[in-house]
Amino acid sequence: MRELLEREGRVAYRILKRRFALTDEDVEDLKADLIDAKRLATDEDGKVLVWAGASLVQSPEFKALSSTQPPAPNTQPPEAERRQLTVMFCDLVGSTTLSAQLDPEELREVVRGYQQTSATVIERFGGHIAQYLGDGLLVYFGYPVAHEDDAARAVRTGLEIITILQKQVPSLRVPSPLVGEGQGEGATEKERKLQVRIGIHTGPVVVGEMGGGAKREQLALGETPNIAARIQGQAEPDTVLISAPTYRLVEGLFECEDHGQPVLKGVSTPLTLYHVLKEGEVQSRFQVIVRKGLTPLVGREHEFGLLRERWEQVRDGEGQVVLLSGEPGIGKSRLVEALKDSLKHEGVSCLELRCSPYHQNSALYPVIEHLQRVLQFQQTDSSEQKLENLKQMLSRSRLDLQETVPLLASLLSLP
Question: N or C: which end of the chain has fewer CB within 10 A?
């Protein structure tokens, strides 16, 4: 009976009588025991017995927790864990010179702007800033949350940080003081952009709590962070340099060039480095595999037949939408690729639009990305060049340019 009341929280006396065959005298005995003696329940209008647990006991010697009170926080540090991690070091170029040229308050604003801009990019790609090392950043990809493409996320983060700094965001422009006299009365201060060096390495680490007293941090220990720091030291300004293990994980997704095997201080084994030039045309690791060649499709005859049936209905004029879902790695992309191959033999053109975990706040991103690929936009193209490419493409269509150009230009963020 007590277990029922504790589980339900509120039970009517009539229910107790019927379920346990209680008399009025039995109910009074129950109330005297649970309410008066043990103070585990309360009476509500003589009709309902309400469970109160031990929350009513508040003596100095004993103070029990109520069922609604949150448990005490666990003060024990989490155990260290071994895992694969991609570590990125990002360092500001010429910080010593900046500290000599700028007032400390001005330097603080410049470094804060750089850190905040970098942090925004890192957060968007799922990275974790482990430490702010003066004007440098130590970033983990794969901790505390792991992704299947952490290495690619790290490289994209590095390229994006460099791109933003090269655009000379007003808050990040660094005033260059005039040197000496004789500059002329009309001379004004110039501005120069901030530059960074970025090094990335992937390998095993042990992540756990480090430090003592009030200063405790979750840090990754092992050779991997040290190598990433050494790689960053080899990078030229505004370049992303990655190790061979990282390159193997992102091969095909980015255009890279061999940087040789420079001597890395404290690293005995020669390590080939790669300079990341830009992001490639492929959108996923699966597309990289497709270019290398796929094995025959096996064991998916039924699913493939269903897709073919829907395509035959489309050819008969009945539009179809197919949702293909399942656990990662069971062959969804392979099945779609098999359908695309079969349609190519029929002379059918396929348009493939992909969502991105990096653009979850943009519902139209798949359309925007597709248009950018069709128009062959490059990062070095000016807004005027991109707009001219858009007009040329639309001029070959039957669309009204006066109406269509402004709409697509707005979608593509072109002036």
Answer: C
Q: Give the integer Cα–Cα distance in Å for 134 and 158.
A: 18
The sign of the dihedral angle between the CA atoms of 201, 206, 208, 212 is negative
CA 331/CA 293 separation, integer angstroms: 15
DSSP character for 66? P
**DSSP secondary-structure letter at 357?**
G
Q: Three-state DSSP class for 269? A: coil
Is 86 within 8 Å of 141 (Cβ atoms)? yes
pLDDT at 368 over 80: yes
Quote the tokens at residue 312.
Answer: 């035959």
Strands 239-243, 196-212: parallel, antiparallel or unpaired by DSSP? parallel
Integer Cα distance of 254 and 94 in angstroms: 28
For the question of whether the overall pTM of this predicted structure is more than 0.85, the answer is: no
Beta-sheet strands, E only, within 244-329: 254-258, 273-279
To the nearest 10°, the Cα dihedral for 217, 221, 225, 226?
Answer: 120
Distances (CA, A) of 285 to 24, 100, 149, 288, 292: 74, 46, 9, 5, 11
Asked if the model's pLDDT at residue 260 lies above 70, the reply is yes
Are the C-beta atoms of residues 132 and 140 closer than 8 Å to each other? no
Rounded Cα distance between 113 and 161, Å, is 12
Flag whether pLDDT at 216 surpasses 70.
yes
> CA-CA distances (angstroms) from residue 261 to 46, 202, 234, 254, 271?
85, 17, 10, 20, 5
Q: List b or e across 56-80, with b for residues whose CB sees 16 or more CB atoms inside 10 angstroms.
A: eeeeeeeeeeeeeeeeeeeeeeeee
How many other β-carbons are positioned within 10 Å of the β-carbon of residue 240?
A: 29
Cis ω for the linkage preceding 406 (within 30 of 0) = no
Buried b (16+ CB within 10 A) or exposed e, 274-312: bbbeebeeebebebebbeeeeeebeebeebeeebeeebe
Q: How far is CA 224 from CA 263, 271, 311, 333, in A?
A: 16, 12, 50, 33
Helix (H, G, I), strand (E, B) or coil at 63: strand
On whether the CB atoms of residues 202 and 85 are closer than 8 A, the answer is yes
Q: What is the CA radius of gyration of the chain?
A: 32
Q: What is the spatial distance between Cα 85 and Cα 330, in angstroms, rounded to a whole number?
A: 25
- pLDDT averaged over every residue in the chain: 82
